[in-house]
Write a sequence for this structure.
């Protein structure tokens, strides 16, 4: 009887460990999506709003945008396709990569061409008040 209980305990432990490991790997992969941008990486930042021309952002604004982006918790994202946006912040890096921060119906979506092997797209699950306010002021 003790032996069966021991085997059952080990089996349950292994199942729980396997489930935990799978969730850990998935969370780790998502964390790798939302990596910080260093201001030294930024060659230029441009703004685009639906129906207007693209505008270059002054250096002082670039620093704020990068800081707001970097403050967001990488654990609170979800891999999502980015729908058509109302406004965008386009970050061009010195390495030639592009990071696009999209604003769609009060939500922040990101397309990255600098992480991994392809275009990564994800959504911020929580509010990012500074970025959201920035976009709201831009489109109003």
């Amino acid at each position: 009887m003790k032996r069966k209980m021991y085997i059952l305990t080990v089996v349950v432990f292994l199942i729980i460990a396997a489930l935990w490991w799978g969730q850990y790997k998935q969370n780790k992969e998502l964390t790798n999506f939302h990596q910080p941008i260093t201001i030294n990486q930024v060659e230029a930042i441009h703004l685009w709003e639906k129906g207007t021309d693209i505008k270059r952002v002054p250096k002082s604004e670039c620093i704020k945008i990068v800081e707001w982006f970097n403050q967001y918790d990488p654990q609170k994202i979800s891999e999502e396709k980015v729908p058509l946006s109302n406004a965008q912040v386009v970050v061009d890096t010195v390495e030639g990569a592009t990071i696009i921060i999209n604003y769609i119906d009060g939500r922040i979506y990101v397309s990255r061409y600098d992480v991994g092997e392809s275009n990564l797209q994800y959504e911020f699950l929580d509010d990012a008040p500074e970025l959201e306010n920035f976009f709201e002021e831009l489109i109003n």
Summary: The domain at 34-139 is CATH 3.30.1490.410 (Dna Ligase; domain 1). Residues 106 and 133 are 9 Å apart (CA to CA). The beta strands are 42-49, 55-56, 77-79, 87-93, 98-104, 107-112, 120-124. The chain has a mean pLDDT of 83.
